[in-house]
Each structure stands twice: as C-alpha cells, then as structure tokens.
Amino acid sequence: WSPFTVSEAYAAQRGFHSKGGKLDVFRAANLLLRDTLNGKKVILSFPPPLEGTATVVGEGDEEHADKAEGGAVMTTDQVAALLGDMDMQQGKQIYEMTEKE
After folding, report:
1. For the chain, what is the domain count?
2. Does pLDDT of 94 surpass 50?
3. CB–CB of 24/18 below 8 Å?
4. CB 27 within 8 A of CB 7
5. How many CB atoms lie under 10 A from the CB of residue 72?
6. Which residues pair with 55 in a beta bridge?
7. How far, in Å, CA of 77 to CA of 87, rounded?
8. What is the pLDDT of residue 6?
9. Which of 51, 54, 59, 60 is nearest to 74 (CA)?
C-alpha cells in the first residue's frame, strides 16, 4: 500500500472530486493528516504479508490487473470499503469505551 492509494481510496469513500472529475487525493490526504493530528482518527498500520499480497487497481487500470504478480487484486472501491469498515470498528470501540465510563 502506498500513501497515494490510501488517499485515493479515502477520496473515493468520501466523494472528493476535483473540477476535472478525478479523485481529489490531495484533499483526502490533507483530511487524513488533520484528523490524525487532532486525534479523530487512529491509524494502525500493519504491513501486508509478503506472500499473497494484494495489488490495488485504480479506475481504468483493469488492464494492469492481469499483470499483478500473484495475490489478490483490489479496486479502489474495495479499499474504500475496507477503510469504511475500519472507521466503523473504531467508532464501535470508542462507543464501548465511553459507555463503560
């Protein structure tokens, strides 16, 4: 995973588009950094395993999917869904913590 692909997936999840209709990855990256610095998002990063790694394929890059060396191929929508699941899990954990107090 690269910072660009994470930002691209986050932009797709949030619906950030530039004037040309492309994903606004810079706005998404800026928001991710601001939220992380303000403590709104806690991002834990575990490197993907070397065996069976996933290749992220952006919109219009399906022709590169067949050239991926082994492993799974994920679209930016799938990565965005994964990030959304992480947000939901984090929200559930925060809710459980505040409920105990």
Report:
1. 1
2. no
3. yes
4. no
5. 12
6. 73
7. 15
8. 87
9. 54
pTM exceeding the 0.85 threshold for the entire prediction: no
DSSP 48: P
User: pLDDT digits over 39-78, tens only?
Assistant: 777 666 666 665 554 555 555 555 554 554 554 556 666 6
Structural domain range at position 66:
3-45+52-100
The answer to whether 29 touches 12, Cβ cutoff 8 Å, is: no
Three-state secondary structure readout of 73-96: EEEHHHHHHHHHHHHHHHHHHHHH
- State the average pLDDT for the chain: 69
Q: What are phi and psi of 65, to 5 degrees?
A: -65, -35
What are 13's two structure tokens? 């999840």
